[in-house]
Fold:
Amino acid sequence: MTPGKHVEYRVREIKRYTVTRHETHVDEQGRESCGSSTQVGSHYDNYETAHAVAYALCAKEHGDLGYDLGDERIQYPRDPQPCELAPSDSN
Structure:
């Protein structure tokens, strides 16, 4: 793993949707610290809005940190697979 702060934004469903920020730190020897997660902002009524918020927050922090495009230390929220958004079958 590359030394430095590693940041990942995720979208999580909780009846509605929330954005979380997860942070760990990797030292020069490649040892990873205990990570922490924080809810960012409010709850959102749909995935698309939550994803747009998470992406914008991640892009801003990416610029603030000055990491190159493609740097593994910053992880943008991923679009879920279609089956992850499909309603569950209650039968």
Remarks:
- DSSP finds two helices and four strands in the chain.
- The chain has one domain: 4-85.
- The CA atoms of residues 61 and 74 lie 9 Å apart.
